[in-house]
Design goal:
Order of helices and strands: HEEEHEHEHEEH
CATH topology: Glutaredoxin
Strand content: 15-25%
CATH architecture: 3-Layer(aba) Sandwich
Number of domains: 1
Distance between the termini: 51 Å
Oligomer: single chain
Number of helices: 5
Helix content: 25-40%
CATH superfamily: Glutaredoxin
CATH class: Alpha Beta
């Protein structure tokens, strides 16, 4: 019986350590600290939004930027977006912006998708813009999100789903 409980406890502990939702940073450990050696983000891009307007990344320098690479066919992306809508609404006035970079969808797919999810932040058309993706390094899956500090350094990178609460802790610490 004791061996069984030890096995269960070990399994639960192992699962908790492997879970992508497991909080790797705690509030007490200051999860926002942007490493002094963090790479500078290349903000020298101008991309069209789904309305055809030019959006220049560098115009957002001095703000905390959440750059989210996503696609309409990506399930975890769809789960994260409502959290980004809420975070943008709550922190925009404090110098926070979300840039949603759709990696391969045409505008005809983006507009109804963005309307359905009530996306209130710039939705950028990344179809054919591999140069932007390459500038941020290898992406091993979607969503891939970058939190860029006011000084232009890439402070956090998330590959795959991350919780709204995790993003909020990191954003608040950078604001």
């Amino acid at each position: 019986m004791l061996k069984r409980w030890i096995g269960i406890a070990f399994g639960v502990g192992l699962l908790a350590m492997m879970s992508p939702i497991w909080p790797l940073d705690s509030e007490a450990a200051d999860p926002s600290a942007c490493d002094a050696n963090a790479k500078m983000a290349n903000l020298n891009f101008t991309v069209k939004d789904m309305g055809g307007k030019d959006v220049t990344f560098s115009s957002h320098k001095g703000k905390v930027i959440l750059l989210d690479f996503w696609a309409t066919w990506c399930g975890p992306c769809k789960v994260e977006i409502p959290g980004f809508v809420d975070l943008y609404t709550r922190y925009q006035s404090r110098g926070f912006v979300v840039l949603g970079f759709s990696v391969d969808d045409p505008v005809s797919k983006l507009k109804p998708y963005a309307a359905q999810l009530k996306m209130n932040y710039p939705v950028l058309v990344g179809n054919g813009r591999t140069d932007v993706q390459e500038a941020f390094g290898p992406m091993w899956g979607l969503p891939t999100s970058f939190l860029i500090g006011r000084d232009g350094r890439i402070c956090k990178k998330h590959t795959g789903f991350a919780t709204k609460e995790q993003f909020e802790r990191e954003i608040k610490a950078l604001l």
